[in-house]
Amino acid sequence: MSLSNDQAAPTQVLVSQIGAREHYAIACALRDQAVLAAMVTDFWAPKKHWFRFIPGLTRLRDRYIISLASVMVLAPNIRMFCFELWQRLLKRRGWPVNMARNTLFQKFAISKFDKLAMQHEQLALFSYSYAARDLFDEAKRRGWKTLLGQIDPGPEEERIVAAEHERYPKLGSRWQPAPTEYWAAWRQEIDLADVVIVNSEWSKQCLIKEGVDERKLEVVPLVYESKRSQNNDAPHAESYHSEDVVFQVLFLGQINLRKGIARLIEAMRLLKDKPIRLTLAGPCEIDSSSWADLPNVEWLGSVPRSEVGRLYENADVFILPTLSDGYAITQLEALSRGLPVIASAHCGAAVDHGVNGWILADLEPETIAGAITRARVENLKPVDAGSSFTPDELGQSLVDLIC
Prior knowledge:
Elements: E1 12-17, H1 25-32, E2 36-41, E3 73-74, H2 77-89, H3 95-110, H4 113-119, E4 123-128, H5 133-141, E5 145-149, H6 155-167, H7 180-192, E6 195-198, H8 201-209, E7 217-219, E8 247-252, H9 261-270, E9 276-281, E10 297-299, H10 305-314, E11 317-320, H11 330-336, E12 341-343, E13 357-359, H12 365-378, H13 391-402
Parallel strand pairs: 1-2, 1-4, 2-3, 4-5, 5-6, 6-7, 8-9, 8-11, 9-10, 11-12, 12-13
């Protein structure tokens, strides 16, 4: 469609993100609305990229989505690869590495601004939190609108996690609070952002409690397109009232205290004489001996995305007793495969209580154990749910925020 002389070209959006967050949903939604100028990311590995053939770099195979094959994607692959390799050789980890990575990435992104500005009349910048301050500072200098994708509930979440570590001091967690300069940079991001996008009402309330201007905050839920096959009937058809049938509970994600793992393990201890089994899948940040005495708990370690579907298909219920999450996309992944979910209220509102799962009244181990028992008895078989918020709605919401 051609524009008349008095019609201005629509504002195009540059998306900046480290990692494959939300499976590149923001960039894809903006592309579908014909307003995506480009995406800048840390690694981008198309089908024939040499990253895909190096042992030990299998996780980088997920740093690509065919939906963006025709889009300009800018990525400092070699620079970031050398950075990550050097940090590993020096055995550096934690907050200093995280902050150095964010700074290096932002320098690369800013170096591309001139080129993009020459190609587009009007630009806006979307960037995820904690790697946006320098980007926003330069974008504001150029007169661009700035949208911050806040990935978590911020400092309030850190206080919640700190309290949990005081409750469970013997679990050997490697968690450390962020340094003051990290939060100082974040507050500058908030100040420089025209709009702060959060994925849940939980995040919004945490940020308001922290003093973020409510007028800047917009709740935009996550989207997730179903991966459920036509032949994938929801969980096992057997009756779980039989003591011979083991009820399979799945937790997928980071094995840490923020996710409520300590409370979940305590709940499984209460259920150790029941035909109920918990599978933990994901990287572990606590002492795995915490459940060594429990034959009804199995930890698989990190699982490649190619194997995640099998885990959902073999489970009878997905559990997410998180103390705090910006949303937790694993809820949508589970629901999209017809798997009922037991979820905390401290994350995105994906569960309809009693319909496609159960919302925990609180996060005490007794409550979690009771919910698992209830799930086994009720044996819900939800239809393919996914997300009620579609990619088209996401794209239109973003366009509305830019205009």
